[in-house]
Amino acid sequence: MALRQLALLPALALLSVLLYAGLSHADPQYVLGGDVVPANTARIIALGTGTPNVYKDQLATSYLIQLGLDGQNVTNILFDVGTGSIVNLYATQVSLANVATVFLSHLHSDHITDLAPLYALASGRSGPLQVWGPSGASPDLGTNATVAGLKAFLGWDQASRNHVSEFPAGYTGNQIVAHEFNYSVPNQLVYNQSGVVVYSNPAFHYDTPGPVSLKLQWRNLTITYSGDTVPLTTFVDFALGSDVVIHEAVGPVYNLSAAAIASKNIALNHTTAVQVGQIFQAIQPRLAIATHLSLRQDTYVPLVSAIRSSFPAGPLALAQDLAVWDVSATSIQQRRFLVIPNGVGGLFTAPSAAPNPAGYKFVTQFDYNWPFPATTHTGLQLYTPGQALAPLPANPASVAASSTSGRH
After folding, report:
1. What's the pLDDT score for residue 323?
2. How do the domains of the chain map onto residue ranges?
3. Where does the secretion signal sit in this chain (predicted)?
4. Does domain 11-348 have CATH number 3.40.50.360?
5. End-to-end CA distance of the chain
6. CA distance 47 to 45
7. Rounded distance, CA 243 to CA 131, Å?
8. Helix, strand, or coil here: 333?
């Protein structure tokens, strides 16, 4: 064994003691989708736990909360849907058609980017994708404007999909609806449906009006999520009594760009590892989850040591992508699920354990059940073998059009 690996063993052993005290653990070879969410249990799935600088093992921020209603049915709620997180949502094998409720903590790209595929590709929903999010300093900087811009951005995408999808009359599952709330109101009730209650509370991030923290309450369980913020007394007040607190922390500095710039960025816009420990110590949740960290082999021990310097005891987890916590009134179980290679997920979940849905076959033009003309409405002809072929002549008008389309 390499000397470096030997040197790491005591540190990793210490890490396991510091990090996981107070949490129960199940089979590490856990494949999500093979079990149901128990009744009266909130399952928290980390779809993305990282920073804007995403990489394969740590995507941008998103948490799927599954509320186990009766041991069979669940309510799915997303807190943020950052860059790349849709990949891990697919990996859960949860059909996108069953994910229709999203809450946004703020409108940075690393928290909202994957709204695009969630909206565009989940046409199996029974109703619109519903998005709750904060206002901004002006109407053009709030959630309503963001969702309107997303719809415009995907205008051609949706027009083309709707053209061939043969949706029934009155179908709304291909739509998206924004619910903007005032970011500045403390402990504000923003959602109350089917026993699920969500509150918002102002956060501070990039000194720009808009960011909020979120708190979900359901069946005597409370999960509070900071979003991106500096450490705030008002957040502690907001989160007191929570079963689970998910709070951002950024670092270590040497794992970010230039150290001086990164230090200033953390101080002005984020929470350090020591500070997040102070937040956890003040709240004393049943489970403290530090998120938004840059996790590498060489950062785990210093991060945990920093947090434990101000939060010396109590269940603590550093959020990793694909981590799963089952939270009930009496227990918290932590796992991390395995992704099945080439697993089927998202909208295209197979109806059985078979690799492909029953009756699957490759599509040919003759399988389409909408009118497919030999000549399209733009005059383009479908290719058939044996046609006479000739090079297309250049069109000077197209050169002029393309030369102006990209001007700023």
Report:
1. 93
2. 11-348
3. 1-26
4. no
5. 57
6. 6
7. 25
8. strand
